[in-house]
Write a structure and sequence with these properties.
Layout (H helix, E strand, L loop, with lengths): L21 E5 L4 H17 L2 E8 L2 H4 L10 H21 L7 E7 L2 H11 L4 E5 L5 H6 L2 H8 L3 E5 L8
Parallel strand pairs: 1-2, 1-4, 2-3, 4-5
Helix pairs in contact: 4-6
């Protein structure tokens, strides 16, 4: 017969609660992004956290050099993309309870690197974002959430909304 040891296993210390003062929440309008927003509201309410909502739009002007002559006007496309991003952020902020401090950021470029850059430029406790679930394409070329998890220097929480069974 063996005796049970009262010595805790390595890493077996009692768990405490996570506390967040500043959260970066990357949104994209997806169902998983909505889940990340709901988690941010929960954390902000509990911890009185300040939230930064961000979205990233492609740099149409920068990318237009690869389009060749006769392509669409990149300045007009950029303006449209910027307006849509700002509208997405406004709509999200309008749904937040008034007692939660929210700031917004729109960045241009590739989403993963821009989220990481924003996180490194500011003192966030964690990043929350949605997993869009792009299937095999994302598995082959990588996804934004995978990029952020690999490169972040703070905790990353990826929300994955349940699949719609009617789809």
């Amino acid at each position: 017969m063996s005796e049970e040891s009262s010595t805790p296993e390595p890493g077996g210390l009692p768990l405490g609660e996570l506390r967040f003062n500043r959260l970066l929440v990357a949104i994209d309008g997806s169902g998983s992004g909505e889940l990340a927003l709901a988690a941010a509201v929960t954390a902000a309410r509990r911890d009185n956290s300040a939230l930064t909502l961000m979205t990233v739009v492609p740099d149409m002007v920068g990318e237009s050099a690869r389009w060749g002559p006769g392509g669409p006007d990149p300045v007009s496309l950029q303006g449209d993309a910027d307006e849509e991003a700002a509208a997405t952020l406004r709509a999200a902020v309008d749904r937040f309870p008034p007692d939660i401090a929210v700031t917004t950021v729109v960045r241009r470029g590739r989403a993963g690197p821009e989220i990481i850059a924003q996180a490194r430029e500011h003192d966030y406790d964690a990043i929350l974002l949605g997993a869009r679930g792009l299937g095999r394409v994302a598995a082959l070329i990588g996804s934004v959430s995978s990029y952020v998890v690999r490169h972040a220097q703070v905790a990353v929480f990826v929300a994955h909304a349940p699949r719609d069974e009617d789809a």
